[in-house]
Amino acid sequence: MALPTHRKVADNQTNKEGGFNSRLTDWDSINGEVLDLDIDYSNNYTLNNKEFYSHCVFRISDTAGADGDIYITVPSTPRPLFAVVNDTAQKVYVRVSGQTQNRYIQAG
Q1: Which of 74, 83, 80 is nearest to 6 (CA)?
Q2: Span 10-25, average pLDDT
Q3: Is 58 left (phi over 0), alpha (psi -120 to 50) or beta?
Q4: Is the pLDDT of residue 85 over 60?
Q5: What 3 state SS string does the chain have?
Q6: Which of 16, 49, 89, 102 has the most other CB atoms within 10 Å of its CB?
């Protein structure tokens, strides 16, 4: 996982420790919060803002009936870090609300 470009500490930044520490605080505030999402036959799930900001890891399962490619949509709001774990046999794609590009998450 990497920080988005606008959140990185630049080589010439004057307050490197402050910038880095604030990113660690962001991470620490959500670290360990896993949201388990059991996807049904619709093969789609849209995270709301509360779900997205209250968790840093989203674990995808398909025991509720998903039977094809799964699409997870996340809000188009700034977020320092998050991870998606694909615990299915399906392909899982993550997309940002309002955008057309998807990111593929390998099964297993």
Answers
A1: 80
A2: 58
A3: beta
A4: yes
A5: CCCCHHHCCCCCCCCHHHHHHHHHHHHHHHCCCEEEEEEECCCEEECCHHHHHHCCEEEEEEEEECCCCEEEEECCCCCCCCEEEECCCCCEEEEECCCCCEEEECCC
A6: 102
Q: Say whether pLDDT at 105 is over 80.
A: yes
- Between CA 22 and CA 16 the distance in angstroms is 10
Tokens 């509720």 appear where?
Answer: 64
Q: Is the whole model's pTM more than 0.90, yes or no?
A: no
Please tell me the predicted confidence (pLDDT) of residue 2. Answer: 43
